[in-house]
Design goal:
Elements lengths: L1 E8 L4 H6 L1 H9 L5 E8 L6 E9 L3 H9 L2 H5 L2 E9 L19 E9 L14 E8 L6 E9 L3 H5 L7 E9 L6
Antiparallel strand pairs: 1-3, 1-4, 2-3, 2-8, 4-6, 5-7, 5-8, 6-7
Length: 182
């Protein structure tokens, strides 16, 4: 089962995040084989961390909750909240298999939340810049509750265009970069 996890930093948590950097990395190293994508999100300055994204393939929801809530930064209070949802990998690959590689161009997390109607989107025709793409689902994977995409785009507005605004109550775009030691 695939899960999307977005830990979002609480204000003022940067010193604690920095202090726990190696503990976070060591924890994620334990999940290396299960990770589909990972990496930090950033504020508009492109430098200040605002959260951490992990897309992971785990046996069940209990394992996903343990993954999200046993994480050292979460345990220490770095994060203000966690978005944890079932997810479906419509590209069928990991971020490390993205043909565009780890460098070059700006990367973004795009979240379409609160779908207004219809069914979950299919992979857009313009897929060359998609690093990861899939629907966010209810716990039983029956209901579509949003969409999460990692995309290479020149700016936030171009990244936002990967989702059709009229389909969602809101779309969030966050600067993001490849994470991990690979």
């Amino acid at each position: 089962m695939e899960f999307f996890c977005h830990h979002r930093d609480r204000p003022g948590a940067l010193p604690l995040r920095e202090e726990l950097g190696e503990a976070h990395w060591a924890y994620m190293d334990r999940y290396e084989a299960e990770l589909i994508a990972r990496g930090p999100t950033f504020a508009d300055d492109g430098e200040t961390p605002t959260g951490s994204v992990h897309i992971v393939d785990l046996p069940d929801a209990a394992a996903a909750r343990a993954f999200a809530f046993d994480e050292p930064n979460y345990q220490a209070g770095v994060y203000r909240d966690v978005l944890l949802r079932r997810w479906r990998n419509l590209l069928g690959r990991t971020m490390w298999e993205f043909p565009g590689g780890r460098t070059g161009g700006d990367r973004h997390l795009v979240l379409g939340l609160g779908p207004l109607s219809g069914t979950a989107p299919e992979v857009p025709d313009e897929r060359d810049e998609l690093i990861a793409f899939g629907p966010l689902l209810s716990d039983d994977a029956e209901a579509w509750v949003g969409t999460a995409a990692l995309v290479r785009a020149p700016d936030a507005e171009a990244a936002r265009a990967v989702l059709r605004l009229e389909r969602y109550a809101g779309i969030e775009v966050h600067a993001w970069e490849f994470g991990g030691r690979r």
